[in-house]
Amino acid sequence: MIPDYENYKKLVDSLKSASALLNLERKSQLHQDITTICNHLVNPSFRIAVFGPFNHGKSTLLNAILGNRTLPIDLIPTTGAAITVKYGSDVRTRIMLVDGTEISRSGTEVLQQFAILDGNRQMQKDVASVEVFCPHPFLETGVELLDLPGTNDRDEQDNLVREQLLSADLVIQLLDARKLMTLGERENLRDWLLDRGIKTVIFVANFLNLLEPDEQKQVQNRLLFVAESFRAELPPGFSNLYRVDALPALRARLKGDVAAANSSGLAAFETALQNIVEILQPNRGSVRLPRVEAIASQIQFSLKAKIDPIAIEIKSFDDKQNTKIEIKEKAANLIYKGFATSVAELRDWLALPKLLTKYQADAAVALAENNFKDWQTNTLKKDLIKLQFAAIKWLEQAYEFFQEERPQDLLIPFPSEPQVTLPSKPSNIDDLSEPGSIAVGGGIGWLLGGPVGAAVVGSISYLLNKNIQQQDEQLANESYHQQVAKLCITAIEGYLSLFSSQGLSILNEYEQKAEKVICFEVSQEPVEITKKRQSLQQLQDCFNGLLKELEKVKILSNHQPYKQIPKYTNTNRKYSPQFERVQTSPKKDPGIKEQQENTANNNRTRVKSVSPPPPSKASPSPRPEEVEAKFRDWELNEEIARMKAEMRLPGFKTGKQQNTTQSNKAPNQPKTQTEKDKITRAYSILGLQANASLAEVKQAYRTLVKKWHPDLFVGKPQLQKQAEDKMHLVNDAYTILSEK
């Protein structure tokens, strides 16, 4: 199938787009090659170029083929431009100047003015193209002949020849039999033809008639060697070597001497040339595409040279940004987990049934004994502050980490002190019998005094233990001190109910406001990076598009297409964890437990065994779940502290990268026997076999911390001292093994 503009339009567009994106200099070799091959791909004519050093008879050979002196010939280098000979109804010449001027003349005399070298043997700098039209039957078949300036004369001429050869479907390399295949000709054959995918080449030896018969045989043998050493891609059955005595052939053709034309070799060469063209012309794509392959390879390397540095820079930027975001997201999630757990504990504590169970009896007793205010301050307020602080500290962590909205204080007020109205005292109870509304601060026990007051306090405990808190029909039959006790219990229930409802309402509002604190803003990327990202996308699209078009025409490439670069959302956006109330106890939440374990595995900071202050006599030993909560908070705090440190370091790595690096890193061998002994002892302290993995070391450390944490032995001085000593050993062992 004859290729046309539509067949190669997209390939040509891809080549031109690549040239534009590469910002090639117009005079650069690659830019000129791209322009030439693009024009050649869509040229419907079959071009035959005659190529060789000056004075080898190129124009003479073409004139012999045409049968007239169409082209200028002389004994000195004359052709100063690439002259294209095309079919025309009459002989005429068209010259295009660089400034766009067109000069059209009948005949070819105008060539003497524009197409030959000047007095200094320089090409005409103002000439863009030279075309000669000739009514020859060979040209009428769609063939164009290209007469090129001689090589090995001036660099400017060599550059023009090199460029024009790329647009030739068939190259005739003219050889001088008197000085066969010089070093320059061999270099041009390699650099200008073979390396650029131009392999449809025919060698024509000229001037063989000027040699003696013995010399002719020697030269013919050398010519055969040259032809055999070059594997031309010609149709099967055709030689790539011919002898044509160009000047005798031209004279014979001008005289109409058929016998002389045959003896000069012209007739045999013309026949072979016409047959070769007849075969190659319908499938010229197989001739042209190898040149595209050679140029496309250069384009791809040039594109990669621009793409890869930009891609590396953008990937480095993205990695740093993603790592920062990943750390911030992880920190936000950790802080939210801690905050949500603390809020859940406070909400659970504020639930009325929990408040009644934990405080109603003591509060009612304090009310009866005139100690309610002290009880509120020293017990209820103290417990509330501890739980409030546990929630507030996470928002302070968030503000310190993200610097978003400053957290507000969590203020849960206490209701007014409860008041009770004493019933009328029976006449048989001592001497104080005045009823009335008595403020709590007055002190029921003080008012009643003596045995009655003590009986009220005792009845409070009795009634609550019996779960009798409602008025019933037996009220009138109850003892007076039981009636007063019920009034105290009811007053405390009302007080705690109001405290619970107000506290839960305030806590809900506080939790909603926390969303503005535990969040961070992902800012826009710099304009400079955005521009580079756009440039990279264009270059990669161009590279991939060129690969695709080359594949369509069966040109394979060693390069792989670039993957789509991640799109960056170049807008400011907020990230905040999913705020959901934690309804279950944190210690039963498998998600939190899993987070704690992951945090511990990434943590290399050891627990400090600091001796707590001596407990008061009334202070109970902490429960195991309380130590677990402390350990959990410590892990979250340490993890956040580590992330803060990472955020401030250039080139920091994510925990996953750090773990990978550590796992792939060969352990340092101890240099001394002392170091070996320390490591052996450390394994023994943690109860591990020698060379246990780092994960096993961490797990053993966690287990021992939970077993020997000094807080577990509050109120037991001897055991607490033993635990502190044990923790010192455990900490030292963990440090040695985690850093070895």
Structure report:
The chain has about 750 residues and is α/β, with parallel strands linked by helices. About 55% of the residues lie in helices and about 10% in strands. It is built from 24 helices and 13 strands. Strand 7, helix 7 (about 185-195) and strand 8 form a beta-alpha-beta unit. Mean pLDDT is about 80; it is low at about 430-445, about 445-450, about 470-475, about 580-620 and about 650-665.
Number of DSSP strand runs: 13
What is the average of the pLDDT values? 79
Largest sheet: 9 strands, mixed
Cα end-to-end separation: 73 Å
Quickly give the structural class.
alpha/beta
* CA-atom Rg in angstroms: 50 Å
In helices, the fraction of residues equals 55-70%
Strand content: 5-15%
Widest sheet, order of strands = 4-3-5-2-6-1-7-8-9
Q: Poorly predicted ranges (pLDDT <50, ≥5 residues)? A: 430-443, 445-452, 468-476, 580-619, 649-667
Q: What is the 3D shape?
A: elongated
SSE inventory with pairings:
Blueprint: H1 5-21, H2 29-41, E1 46-51, H3 58-66, E2 83-87, E3 92-97, E4 102-106, H4 111-114, E5 127-134, H5 137-140, E6 143-147, H6 155-165, E7 170-176, H7 183-193, E8 201-206, H8 213-229, E9 241-243, H9 246-255, H10 258-263, H11 266-280, H12 285-350, H13 352-368, H14 372-402, E10 420-422, E11 436-438, H15 444-448, H16 450-465, H17 480-514, E12 520-522, H18 527-552, E13 573-575, H19 590-602, H20 624-647, H21 655-664, H22 673-685, H23 694-708, H24 717-739
Parallel strand pairs: 1-6, 1-7, 2-5, 7-8, 8-9
Antiparallel strand pairs: 2-6, 3-4, 3-5, 10-11, 12-13
Helix pairs in contact: 1-2, 1-18, 2-12, 3-9, 12-14, 12-17, 12-18, 12-20, 13-14, 13-16, 13-17, 16-17, 19-20, 22-24, 23-24
